C-alpha cells in the first residue's frame, strides 16, 4: 500500500485509528480478535482498539484460511473477551467503549451507513489477499503500530495472509507504549515487529515482510 493510498484511506475515516482517545479501565484478561485485514467491518473494530489504547491477540482469518477460520467464523470480526464471543462490528465497538472507555463512541464510528461506506472505501486500498501456505510460530509475534500507516498495514496484511498470530500493541499518538518500546529496544520507531521466536526486531515494512516470508512462508 502506498503512502498516498494510506493517506487517502485515513482521510476517508477522518483520521480515526491514528491516536488515543478517552480510555477507561484496562482488561483483566487478554482480548482476542479474529479478523482479516481487508474487511471494512474489521477495520472499525481495529480503529476502536487504537482509540481505547487496547492491546489484543490477533488471530488472522484470511479468505481460504485453515488455521483459525474453521472454529471461529465467519462472520468477522469476532472479539473474545473473558470467554464471551462478540460478533458484529458495531456491537464490538459499543462493548469496548462501555467497558474500557468513557461510554462514548467516537463520532466517525457512529455515523450509521456512512461509517460502513467510508470504512469500505478505506479498505479498498488494500488487496484482498487469500491465505498463503505458512508455518505457525511457536509463540505469537508482537507488533507495535497504529491503524493508519502504510507500513503498518503492509505488515499486518502479510501477517494475515500467512495466518500468523500476533499481539497487536496498539500505538496511536498519545500511547505510553511508545515509551515502553523505546525502553525495551532502545528505539521508539514505528511500526516495530518483534519476533520472540527468533529474537528479531524488525522496523519498517520491507524488513518485516522479508522476515515473515523467509521465516514462516510455506
UniProtKB/TrEMBL annotation:
Domain of life: Bacteria
Residue ranges annotated for the GST N-terminal domain, each copy included: 29-104
Xref: InterPro entries: GLR_AS, Glutathione_S-Trfase_N, Thioredoxin-like_sf
PROSITE patterns linked: GLUTAREDOXIN_1, GST_NTER
SUPFAM superfamilies according to UniProt: Thioredoxin-like
Pfam family, one: GST_N_3
Protein name: Glutathione S-transferase N-terminal domain-containing protein
Lineage of source species: Bacteria, Pseudomonadati, Myxococcota, Polyangia, Nannocystales
